[in-house]
């Protein structure tokens, strides 16, 4: 077996509401074989990974997978479960997997859940899948693994460095390095409990909370409002001392020392014991306590880097008090690293046993840090008359460090409920004096529950503040060894999002086969009077407050995140296309409004889409991710859209459904309105808002911009969808009516039914590229000019399946009298001229006498189409890239304006009706 490719779905997707990876697995020699075909395979695999016995699989209970394994299942399915179990072994908590067959025999898609905070570019998923493939292959070959070795690798025991166990140990270390630390993780978890969107920035501890102008940033225990001056003050221990001393805060006597002479002078003045620490150090690094001799001083000063603070060592206990936004939210007593003797083990062995605690890790990745043996440990042991080889008696406490920092192996006891008001008040003063919204105040006190004595001039304090920490570690409060854990992450999130704010801005997502770009653009236009700065994504790019900031096909999750992450944005409308949904997932977790314009045949044969049902399944994701209480805007004329309300995850009972449609007699609309609900309809020549029996006219169809006097009924459907969306986002009815009337499609929606004049010819530029879109466009032209006056310059996308291209060709053949066929510069995987050859063949088979010619490139095609035209004709120009086409037409002298022809056919708004025999192909055959 081998993994051929892998892609990450960064947001909710068609498989799961959480991030996932999708891998393409080729079985090769194992294709067509099942586990029951290999004698002893199940037993060898279970011996290697006994945890597989707990996997539910489809049975919904432990043992389900084992039953499948012994009864016979394919090896792609086995690889899925092995990967999940290996993930658990390395401490990566995932449980969801799925294996889906592809159209190619022996190839499968493996879908594996990812931890929600794993970096988007993590190396772990691919490495785990490769390890799972290799392990299954080894078991197939008859090799037997020891479950003890695998379990040891999962626990990260350092000595397990060889073979498969060593490989997993490396993966565990990689996953731990990529994971967020406890402080960041607590903030992320607190935000998610509040429903606040969270996005991690790469593999950093920087996270974005909320969207748009409600967006906030946090980096561990630092917010985007944390004072830079405060951080610098806290980072310089001598400046902190001066600032606090000037304010009458009790601090130990001492001062700065840049030379050994200055340090010696302070030693002579203060006497021992002293503390020597770097002026700008962190995490207890290079801090020496208990300095009582000149030799101790020399070593401590050198260790501190010869830019030190020397101060009196206060007696009492070591405490950390956490202040967030002017409130004490947690307090802990910190205990230096130690081991308890058992009368049998040496100090070294006791340290090793202590380090096997799964709560301990390297650095700050876990709630406790492993104890590292160094010269400091040996000095502390020597003061107690011990060495690393000593065997302490049972119950004897052997200290390993003077410093109490968790980063040097210390532990903590929660004392939040014991903090005396005097101590709390002092800590609040200190945080305010330094200028920090989040601060960790280190104190030495006899007892944090006792009142403080005021500072007396000339008398050294018996207790005081020994340090102020910006970006304080939260581990000691989140998981104290003794006492209650404190949800300090929630306190930080509440300070950033007061009054229950969820950090969200009003957001709509628009999808569908046709019309989604127009609906997105028109919705943005209709929201123009709300006074909110709008973020917009479409096939043309990303716009913020009407200005394009990024030009590309911007209908995927990265573009959505670009908008939602911009602090200028107050409202977002996101065009959401099939490709992004399948390849990357959604760029958001929930929207306020979801819109589905229609679902018809397009992109079949791509990304596993074989039928219209498959397309509906993908598009349904936008409906499923509308928040409870949000609005779902659906096309009542489309049977596939109507069917979405029956999907379990759409949960129509928890969302407000707003239908729109051109057929006021559609049964779903009639039933909907009978319940007093709201819909947007075309009725008696008007676009109306309907609520129960009440009808409020909005705009006359004949006057709707882009509807060409009512000839373009699909424009009416788009306008109804956009109106429903804008109203759901808070636009006033009067404003919507006004802005519907002043929408200029040629400016705000170029390339979607853009009408130009060239002498006595009309040019109709459109992006129609599937059977339904082509049929709608040609119906419009027939109503305005008649079929005999239609000429077309046709290009179609090469990445469509042959039957779709054939259906498009037949629609065009039935709809025009003359045609020029050309291939776009990008053939999308086909040979040059292949698409136009196929289209010509299908058109001539449909209408043998049709006048059709071939051309090379858009310029030649448009020129040939003009040559085929007669005065009064309309030339339909289909394109792949709009700007070159518009530049070409402008160069030929085409201009906007001119009188619109009087419709030559009656306007009968019969939804779904087609004037072409291609109707059966569009509405029927392709669904199968």
From TrEMBL:
<dbReference type="InterPro" id="IPR011761">
    <property type="entry name" value="ATP-grasp"/>
</dbReference>
<dbReference type="Pfam" id="PF02875">
    <property type="entry name" value="Mur_ligase_C"/>
</dbReference>
<comment type="similarity">
    <text>In the C-terminal section; belongs to the MurCDEF family.</text>
</comment>
<dbReference type="GO" id="GO:0071161">
    <property type="term" value="F:cyanophycin synthetase activity (L-arginine-adding)"/>
</dbReference>
<dbReference type="GO" id="GO:0046872">
    <property type="term" value="F:metal ion binding"/>
</dbReference>
<dbReference type="GO" id="GO:0071160">
    <property type="term" value="F:cyanophycin synthetase activity (L-aspartate-adding)"/>
</dbReference>
<dbReference type="InterPro" id="IPR036615">
    <property type="entry name" value="Mur_ligase_C_dom_sf"/>
</dbReference>
<dbReference type="InterPro" id="IPR011810">
    <property type="entry name" value="Cya_phycin_syn"/>
</dbReference>
<dbReference type="InterPro" id="IPR044019">
    <property type="entry name" value="Cyanophycin_syn_N"/>
</dbReference>
<dbReference type="InterPro" id="IPR004101">
    <property type="entry name" value="Mur_ligase_C"/>
</dbReference>
<keyword id="KW-0547">Nucleotide-binding</keyword>
<feature type="domain" description="ATP-grasp">
    <location>
        <begin position="241"/>
        <end position="497"/>
    </location>
</feature>
<protein>
    <recommendedName>
        <fullName>Cyanophycin synthetase</fullName>
        <ecNumber>6.3.2.29</ecNumber>
        <ecNumber>6.3.2.30</ecNumber>
    </recommendedName>
</protein>
<comment type="function">
    <text>Catalyzes the ATP-dependent polymerization of arginine and aspartate to multi-L-arginyl-poly-L-aspartic acid (cyanophycin; a water-insoluble reserve polymer).</text>
</comment>
<keyword id="KW-0436">Ligase</keyword>
<dbReference type="Pfam" id="PF08443">
    <property type="entry name" value="RimK"/>
</dbReference>
<dbReference type="InterPro" id="IPR013815">
    <property type="entry name" value="ATP_grasp_subdomain_1"/>
</dbReference>
<comment type="subunit">
    <text>Homodimer.</text>
</comment>
<keyword id="KW-0067">ATP-binding</keyword>
<dbReference type="Pfam" id="PF18921">
    <property type="entry name" value="Cyanophycin_syn"/>
</dbReference>
<dbReference type="InterPro" id="IPR036565">
    <property type="entry name" value="Mur-like_cat_sf"/>
</dbReference>
<dbReference type="Pfam" id="PF08245">
    <property type="entry name" value="Mur_ligase_M"/>
</dbReference>
<dbReference type="InterPro" id="IPR013651">
    <property type="entry name" value="ATP-grasp_RimK-type"/>
</dbReference>
<dbReference type="GO" id="GO:0005524">
    <property type="term" value="F:ATP binding"/>
</dbReference>
<dbReference type="InterPro" id="IPR013221">
    <property type="entry name" value="Mur_ligase_cen"/>
</dbReference>
């Amino acid at each position: 077996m081998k993994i051929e490719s892998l892609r990450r779905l960064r947001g909710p997707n068609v498989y799961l509401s959480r991030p996932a990876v999708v891998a393409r697995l080729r079985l090769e020699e194992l294709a067509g074989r099942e586990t029951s075909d290999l004698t002893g395979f199940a037993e060898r695999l279970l011996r290697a990974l006994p945890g597989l016995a707990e996997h539910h699989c489809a049975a919904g209970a432990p043992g389900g997978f084992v039953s499948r394994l012994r009864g016979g299942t394919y090896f792609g399915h086995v690889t899925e479960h092995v990967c999940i179990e290996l993930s658990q072994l390395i401490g990566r908590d995932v449980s969801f997997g799925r294996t889906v067959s592809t159209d190619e025999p022996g190839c499968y898609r493996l879908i594996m859940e990812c931890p929600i905070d794993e970096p988007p570019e993590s190396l772990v998923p691919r490495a785990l899948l490769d390890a799972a493939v290799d392990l299954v292959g080894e078991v197939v070959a008859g090799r037997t693994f020891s479950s003890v070795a695998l379990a040891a690798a999962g626990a990260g025991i350092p000595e397990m460095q060889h073979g498969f166990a060593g490989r997993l140990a490396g993966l565990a270390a990689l996953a731990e390095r990529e994971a967020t630390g406890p402080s960041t993780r607590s903030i992320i978890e607190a935000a998610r409990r509040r429903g606040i969107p969270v996005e991690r920035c790469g593999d950093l501890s920087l996270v974005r909370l909320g969207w748009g102008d409600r967006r906030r940033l946090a980096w561990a225990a630092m917010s985007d409002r944390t004072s830079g001056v405060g951080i610098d003050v806290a980072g310089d221990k001598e400046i902190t001392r001066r600032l606090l001393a000037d304010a009458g805060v009790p601090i130990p006597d001492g001062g700065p020392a840049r030379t050994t002479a200055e340090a010696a002078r302070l030693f002579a003045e203060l006497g021992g014991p002293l503390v020597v620490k770097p002026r700008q150090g962190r995490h207890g690094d290079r801090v020496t306590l208990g300095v009582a001799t000149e030799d101790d001083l020399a070593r401590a000063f050198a260790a501190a880097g010869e830019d030190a603070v020397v101060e009196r060592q206060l007696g009492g206990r070591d405490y950390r008090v956490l202040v967030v936004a002017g409130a004490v939210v947690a307090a802990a007593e910190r205990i230096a690293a130690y081991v308890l003797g058992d009368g049998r083990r040496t100090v070294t062995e006791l340290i090793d046993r202590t380090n096997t605690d799964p709560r301990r890790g390297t650095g700050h990745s876990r709630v406790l840090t492993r104890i590292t043996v160094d010269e400091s440990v040996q000095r502390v042991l020597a003061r107690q008359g011990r060495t690393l080889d000593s065997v302490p008696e049972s119950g004897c406490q052997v200290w390993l460090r003077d410093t109490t920092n968790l980063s040097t192996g210390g532990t903590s006891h929660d004392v939040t409920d014991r903090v005396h008001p005097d101590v709390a008040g002092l800590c609040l003063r200190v945080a305010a004096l330094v200028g920090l919204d989040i601060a960790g105040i280190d104190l030495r006190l006899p007892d944090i529950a006792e009142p403080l004595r005021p500072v007396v001039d000339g008398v050294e304090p018996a207790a005081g503040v020994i340090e102020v920490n910006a970006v304080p570690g939260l581990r000691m409060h989140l998981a104290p060894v003794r006492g209650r854990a404190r949800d300090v992450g929630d306190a930080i999130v509440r300070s950033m999002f007061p009054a229950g704010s969820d950090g969200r801005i009003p957001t709509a997502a628009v999808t569908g086969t046709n019309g989604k770009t127009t609906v997105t653009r028109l919705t943005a236009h209709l929201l123009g009077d709300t006074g909110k700065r709008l973020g917009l994504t479409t096939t043309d790019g990303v716009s913020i407050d009407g200005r394009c900031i990024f030009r590309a096909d911007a209908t995927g999750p990265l573009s959505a995140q670009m908008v939602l992450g911009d602090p200028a944005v107050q409202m977002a409308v996101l065009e959401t296309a099939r490709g992004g949904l399948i390849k990357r997932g959604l760029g958001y977790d929930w929207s306020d409004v979801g819109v589905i314009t229609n679902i018809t045949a397009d992109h079949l044969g791509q990304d596993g889409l074989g039928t219209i049902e498959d397309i509906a399944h993908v598009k349904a994701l936008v409906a499923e991710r509308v928040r409870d209480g949000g609005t779902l805007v659906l096309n009542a004329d489309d049977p596939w859209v109507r069917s979405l309300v029956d999907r379990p995850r759409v949960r129509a009972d928890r969302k407000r459904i707003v239908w729109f449609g051109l057929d006021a007699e559609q049964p779903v609309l009639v039933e909907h309105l009978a319940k007093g609900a709201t819909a947007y309809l075309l009725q008696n020549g008007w676009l109306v808002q309907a609520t129960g029996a009440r009808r409020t006219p909005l705009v006359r169809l004949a006057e709707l911009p882009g509807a060409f006097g009512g000839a373009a009924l699909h424009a009416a459907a788009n306008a109804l969808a956009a109106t429903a969306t804008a109203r759901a986002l808070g636009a006033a009815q009067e404003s919507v009516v006004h802005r519907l009337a002043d929408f200029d499609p040629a400016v705000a929606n170029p390339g979607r039914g853009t009408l130009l004049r060239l002498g006595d010819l009309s040019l109709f530029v459109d992006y129609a590229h599937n059977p339904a879109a082509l049929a709608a466009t040609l119906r419009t032209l027939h109503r305005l000019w008649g079929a005999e006056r239609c000429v077309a310059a046709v290009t179609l996308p090469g990445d469509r399946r042959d039957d779709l291209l054939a259906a498009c060709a037949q629609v065009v053949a039935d709809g025009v009298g003359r045609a020029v066929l050309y291939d776009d510069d990008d053939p999308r995987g086909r040979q040059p001229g292949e698409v136009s050859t196929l289209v010509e063949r299908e058109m001539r088979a449909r209408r043998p006498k049709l006048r059709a010619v071939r051309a090379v490139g858009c310029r030649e095609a448009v020129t040939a189409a003009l040559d085929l035209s007669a005065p009064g004709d309309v030339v339909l120009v289909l394109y792949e890239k709009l700007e070159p086409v518009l530049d070409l037409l402008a160069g030929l002298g085409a201009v906007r304006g001119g009188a619109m022809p009087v419709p030559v056919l009656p306007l009968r708004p019969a939804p779904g009706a087609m004037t072409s025999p291609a109707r059966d192909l569009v509405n029927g055959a392709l669904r199968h």
